[in-house]
């Protein structure tokens, strides 16, 4: 009986089949184009159906058994066209000669994850071929499963399925016809077309070639096709170049997009950090101002006793110094960012520098009952460094250690040799550092706790300045902490150390001690400026009054001017030894004043010493002031002792 699943029938034109038979080439055995495993390419369904009908009709007429694995529409049309040949494959008129399977359904049973499974092919298709071959008939088959895979673009699976058919032919003798629509092979998949041809023993072109009846027509067609192929190859090559360029441009665009996204994220982060920093600056500047204004108001009332007056003065001084330090940190960071922070390298007594830094933080340690233990190698003396900046480095680390160490804690400072370097270590028993934050501890504007409820003040600039200064010295600085509540250790390595010798010396500085080794110079008397004639020039009346009181208190003869013009008039009648002038003033500035003084070319002006006392403290400001004719440059706010010492040094020959 006929094995067929389908209902719809249509008319079949026998003449078209006969015409195809006359046009189709024959194999050596005389059968129509269908070798052992052949492939037919086609351009239209009508050609395919006519050709396959001829293939099946010829087989049935010769007594062959036919296996058809086609799409449902093609199965129905083939049945209709065979019916026109007098062959009823639907109503079992052919006995065991005709087997029809749905290509979609059969293919779905052979695939796992879009890959053909040979074992499933053997179990399903192979079993059908085996049973049909057992009848003793010759077998021919038509299959469209490969065409379905090609239409999906899954050419690898199509080739794999063709190979399964080839392996099946090693066990059973049958002819197999496959068919592919030429529209499934565009210029980009020429390799797939070649691969499909390679797995077949016979390849037949599509119908547009078959209609050429004479050899001359076919040769002419081949020449035209060769020319088209050359042109197409050139177009394909050009298209590939364009595609490569487009792909490169797309990749570059993706990279730019990623870069833009990263830059935007960094900008958002930087903007957030800037806002946090500005909020912190505002807080850190306003807090000491509040104490200064409050205690100043109380002093103005004149109702404080001696103890409260002393406390008020100490508080005002401490908060003013805190503000000055904040401003200095901000300026240092500005110099770091602009690359203008420079070092004044020379022989630096590193032990004395560490002692001086300890002396500076001792009052803060004393107030918290913190013990500072110091271990210094006595044979380490001078290294090549900027002494002031090196003291700033150590001071920052010590100030941080004391800030983050609870009352009654310990801070350890050590100095020793390590290979060709000198190693400074500052460790504490304080709150420690979250390990996740350690990599960012030296970043500018970064604080472990940047919330409004943070327990510790500061701008988060000190450690970033430390790292930059250490690196300018050619050294390294590292932070280490075993976690929160377990203290922190900062280690600095600086180059240029003398050969090691001797044993380290250990001493302790207790919080209750009022003296520290190495601080003898703190209480030396100030140099005398008695009788020195000094002209103060500043547009700020409070500054003039304050400086005048300080210098007059040291028995100096002081005149004050709040403008350059007034200063010149005073100099006409007042033979000053020293002029202390601000730089930034309205109308005429300090540069104009010194230019006028140096331009007079008198004996008095040649001997006159000039100090620039200003809040303009950039490197270029200092250089400009000194080149303009000032003998010394001091930054505001100035310590009274520093100004007195500067005047004394400049007028030393008058003593």
Question: What is the structure about, briefly put?
Answer:
The protein has 655 residues and is α/β, with parallel strands linked by helices.
Keywords:
655 residues, alpha/beta, Rossmann fold, Helix Hairpins, Heat Shock Protein 90, 4 domains, six-stranded parallel β-sheet, six-stranded mixed β-sheet, 20 helices, 49% helix, 16% strand, elongated
Describe the structure in your own words.
With 655 residues, the protein is an alpha/beta fold. The strands form 5 sheets. A 6-stranded parallel β-sheet has the order 3-2-6-7-1-8, with helices on both faces. It starts with 13 loop residues before the first helix and ends in a 5-residue tail after the last helix. The model is unreliable at 4-34, 449-457 and 499-524 (pLDDT under 50). The protein folds into 4 domains: 14-211, P-loop containing nucleotide triphosphate hydrolases (Rossmann fold, 3-Layer(aba) Sandwich); 223-341, Signal transduction histidine kinase, dimerisation/phosphotransfer (DHp) domain (Helix Hairpins, Orthogonal Bundle); 344-523, Heat Shock Protein 90; 533-654, 3-Layer(aba) Sandwich (Rossmann fold), CATH 3.40.50.2300.
């Amino acid at each position: 009986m006929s094995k067929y699943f389908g209902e719809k029938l249509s008319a079949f034109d026998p003449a078209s089949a006969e015409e195809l038979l006359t046009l189709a080439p024959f194999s050596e055995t005389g059968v129509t184009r269908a070798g052992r495993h052949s492939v037919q390419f086609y351009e239209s369904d009508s050609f395919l159906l006519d050709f396959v009908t001829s293939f099946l009709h010829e087989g049935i007429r010769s007594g062959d058994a036919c296996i058809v694995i086609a799409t449902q529409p093609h199965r129905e049309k083939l049945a209709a066209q065979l019916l026109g040949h007098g062959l009823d494959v639907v109503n079992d008129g052919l006995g065991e000669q005709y087997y029809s399977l749905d290509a979609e359904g059969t293919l779905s049973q052979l695939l796992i994850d879009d890959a053909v499974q040979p074992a499933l092919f053997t179990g399903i298709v192979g079993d059908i071929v085996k049973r049909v071959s057992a009848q003793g008939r010759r077998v021919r088959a038509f299959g469209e499963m490969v065409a379905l895979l090609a239409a999906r673009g899954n050419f690898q699976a199509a080739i794999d399925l063709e190979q399964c058919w080839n392996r099946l032919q090693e066990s059973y003798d049958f002819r197999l016809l496959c068919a592919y629509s030429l529209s499934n092979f565009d210029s980009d998949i020429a390799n797939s077309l070649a691969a499909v041809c390679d797995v077949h023993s016979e390849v037949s072109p599509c119908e547009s070639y078959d209609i050429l009846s004479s050899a001359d027509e076919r040769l002419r067609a081949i020449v035209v096709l060769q020319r088209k192929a050359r042109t197409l190859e050139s177009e394909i090559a050009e298209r590939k170049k364009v595609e490569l360029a487009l792909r490169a441009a797309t990749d570059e665009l993706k990279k730019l997009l990623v870069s833009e996204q990263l830059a935007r994220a960094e900008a958002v982060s930087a903007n957030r950090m800037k806002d946090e920093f500005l909020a912190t600056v505002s807080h850190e500047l306003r807090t000491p101002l509040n104490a200064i204004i409050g205690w100043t108001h109380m002093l103005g009332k004149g109702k404080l006793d001696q103890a409260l007056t002393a406390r008020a003065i100490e508080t005002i001084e401490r908060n003013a110094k805190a503000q000055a330090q904040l401003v200095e940190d901000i300026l240092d960071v500005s110099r770091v960012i602009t690359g203008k922070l420079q070092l004044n390298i020379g022989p630096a007594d590193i032990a004395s520098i560490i002692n001086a830094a300890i002396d500076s933080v001792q009052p803060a340690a004393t107030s918290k009952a913190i013990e500072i233990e110091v271990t210094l190698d006595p044979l380490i003396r001078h290294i090549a460094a900027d002494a002031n900046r090196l003291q700033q480095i150590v001071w920052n680390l010590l100030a941080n250690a004391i800030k983050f160490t609870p009352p009654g804690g310990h801070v350890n400072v050590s100095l020793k040799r390590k290979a060709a370097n000198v190693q400074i270590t500052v460790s504490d028993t304080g709150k420690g550092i979250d390990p996740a934050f350690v990599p960012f501890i030296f970043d500018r504007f970064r604080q472990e706790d940047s919330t409004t409820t943070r327990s510790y003040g500061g701008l988060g600039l000190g450690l970033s300045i430390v790292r930059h200064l250490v690196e300018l010295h050619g050294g390294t600085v590292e932070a280490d902490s075993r976690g929160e509540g377990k203290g922190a250790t900062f280690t600095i390595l600086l180059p240029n150390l003398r050969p090691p010798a001797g044993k380290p010396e250990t001493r302790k500085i207790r919080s209750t001690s009022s003296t520290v080794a190495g601080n003898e110079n703190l209480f030396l008397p100030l140099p005398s400026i008695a009788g020195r004639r000094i002209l103060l020039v500043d547009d700020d009346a409070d500054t003039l009054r304050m400086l005048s009181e300080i210098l007059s208190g040291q028995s100096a003869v002081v005149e004050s001017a709040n403008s350059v013009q007034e200063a010149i008039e005073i100099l006409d009648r007042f033979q000053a030894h020293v002029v202390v002038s601000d730089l930034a003033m309205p109308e005429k500035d300090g540069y104009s004043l010194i230019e006028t003084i140096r331009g007079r070319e008198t004996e008095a002006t040649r001997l006159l010493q000039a100090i620039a006392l200003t809040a303009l403290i950039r490197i270029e400001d200092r250089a400009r002031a000194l080149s303009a004719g000032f003998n010394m440059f001091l930054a505001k706010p100035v310590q009274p002792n520093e100004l007195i010492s500067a005047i004394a040094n400049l007028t030393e020959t008058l003593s």
